[in-house]
Structures are given as C-alpha cells and as structure tokens.
Amino acid sequence: MQALILAGGEGTRLRPLTLTRPKPAVTLVDRPFIAYMVDWIARHGITDVVIACGFGSDAVREALDDGRREAPRLRYVQEPEPLGTAGPLRLAADQGMLDDRFLVLNGDLLADLDLSALIRAHQDRRAAVTLALHSVQDPSSYGLVRRAGGPHAPGGSATAAGGEVWGFLEKPTSEEIDTDEVNAGAYVVDSSVIQLIPRGRMFSIEREVFPRLVGRGLYGHRLEGYWMDVGTPERYLEASWDVLEGRVRTELGDRLGGAGLLVADEATVDPRASVRPPALLEPGVSVEADAVIDRAVVGRAAAIGEGATVSGSVVLGDCRVGPRALVEGAILAPGAVVGDGARIGAGSVIGEGARIEAGSEIEAGARVDPGRVAS
User: Fold this and answer.
1) Same domain, 216 and 283
2) Where would a tag sit more exposed on the chain, N or C end, judged by fewer CB atoms within 10 A?
3) CATH number for the domain including 148?
4) Structural domain contains residue 245
C-alpha cells in the first residue's frame, strides 16, 4: 500500500506564516508539519509516499529530505498549476506513480487515526473509495457525510450494515446537522476512480468525484482517535499543546512520556527564570533572569530577554524577545524580533523577520507581514 499526500495548498488561513514558506514546511513544535504526516503513515506500514507539491515545493523537499529518514520512500509530483484535490491524483497516475489501490490524505492533518483499519474496511468491501469519517462536536465548518448505519440514515435504516455513503452536506446550518460524522480528509482509493478526473485542470474530489460515486462503491468508515485540521492560527497553537501534552501520538510525545516539558541540553536557562510545562526549549535557546516561559514552544537559537514573558505562544527559531516584553497567545515566525517592553496581543501572528519596536503594543489578532517594522 502507498499513500499520496496533497501538499499543494497555499495555506492562506495561516498567513503570514505561509507567505515565506509553504504550509507543509512550517514548523509545528519540533519539526516540519508534514513530517508528522509521514510518521503517522509509516506507523501503518506504508513504505511508499508520493507528495503532490505546488507552491514552495523546494522547501517541502528540503524539509523532508534532511538525511534523517530511512523509510518510507518519498517521491514527489509537481503541480504545474493548482489542480485542486483531485487533479494531483490524475497527474501522479499519468506519471506512473500510483498502484491499483492507494491512500490519499489532505496535507493539513494532524492525526493518529487507525489507517490500517481504514485499509482493511476498504478491502473487505471491495470498495471504489472508502472515506475516513470522524466525529466532531461542531460539524458546521466541515462536510457532513451521510451513510447507511448512521443515525441520519433514511427510512429507519440506522442499524443498516455496510456504511455505504448516500449523501454529503458542506458547511451545514444548525438545523441541517443530523450527524456528527465528517470527512476526515483521508481516503482509500481504487485506481479505477482516476478515469473520473480530467487532465490538466482544477478538479475537486469532494465535490466532483465523490458525489458521482454514490451508489457505485463509495463507503465511509468511522475512526476514533485524535484528528485536527491545522488550518488556522488558533488550531496551530492548539495542535502544539496537544503534541506536547500527548493528546496525539507523535514521536516527540513518546519521548516526553506525559511530562510535557523538554529543555534541550544545549539550551541555557538562567536559574532565576521560570519554565512551566507544557514547554519545549530547543538547542541554542537562551532564557535570561526573571523571564517566564509558560505553555510555550521556543525554537532553536531563540533568545528570551530578562524579565520577558512568553505565555501560550510559539516562538520559532532565531527569534528575539527583548527584556520585559510580553508575548501572549501569539505565534512568532522565524527571525522575528520583539523589542524591549513591547506587548504582543493574543491571536497575533508575526511574520518571518518582522520587527516590533520597543514599547510597542500589537493588538489582539493582528497580522504583521514578513520583514515589516511595526510600532
């Protein structure tokens, strides 16, 4: 079994983080985001991964081809222009890169769902496509999937076996919500489906392929476990804490063992500073006296000045937070500088190499573009 990761999106909801590097290459806690997906896939015996790249493809390759990974094998297919969620399947198939049956995964997932169970369900049903379904508390911003065997099944068929999909509803209103099962962005696909996808243009697998397969071998299979679409700054921060606190299974979480705190040997923390879990301080980090690190990620070679506070925030590599500055509930892209006594409001995202002048106050939810000087 092989997998195709759709990594060609532009990550517009995560801007300005994604203005200087593609979303799959953005660091989540301790590694490029897409590396979590490759690790997840590998745990389920996938030995061949095809990555469909678009914007910033060189950065995606660099993020994964760093010499640390022996398996699975990684191959790349380059979209000449945006092809949606279905077009990359056709492109990869035309280049002879796909087998008779393969996994497809949206490139913005952080999850530990049981992909092996999804593959088994697909094989047992001899399906054309089997969708991974997941339960969410508020499905209003997702695509509902209606299937036989669910509480929404028509004609009293809630106990029907098989899970055959009979309908979809995108971004339903509260009155329309009749199930908690949403499309989890992971599918097992039979190669026969490729013929439904035209060549060389944008095409949606959710809106233009799946509806055509209703009644023709389209199934849903519910999977329990952790699942998040890491598409906004709020979810990015939430995902960071979930990794540190072990809510999702990851290699870093296994190393932390539930402690939620890792200070690299090569980090320098003044004994008068305070570091409160969950927190990660990477190699080369320096934290000066009376600084407070509280529920935070501080990336490689970042510096936290005397009396500064970094709370509920991610400060990526090579950032500088000046003395007495406050960074609260924010994200600092690599190389950002926060001047002495400046205050960064909750929900703010500071772009790569941006500089916040001393004494400035950045309002909650602000976006500061890469390289900009803000006062």
Assistant:
1) no
2) C
3) 3.90.550.10
4) no
CATH number of the domain where residue 269 is located: 2.160.10.10
Residue range 9-42, pLDDT digits in tens: 776 788 898 888 888 888 999 888 889 999 999 9
Both tokens assigned to 199: 């060549």
Q: Which two tokens stand for residue 248?
A: 């999702």
| Model pLDDT for residues 258-267, shown as the tens digit of each residue | 678 888 899 9
Which residue positions in the chain have pLDDT lower than 50? 67, 151-161
CA 217 – CA 319 distance, rounded (Å): 51
Residues 222 and 304 in one domain: no
Q: At 135, list the tokens.
A: 């339960």
Total structural domains within the chain: 2
In a domain, 239, yes or no: no
Let me know: does 83 contact 8? Beta carbons within 8 Å.
yes
**Are residues 226 and 301 located together in one domain of the fold?**
no
Give pLDDT, residue 272: 96
163 is written with which tokens?
Answer: 């899970």
For position 157, what pLDDT does the model report?
33
Whether 248 is covered by a domain: the verdict is no
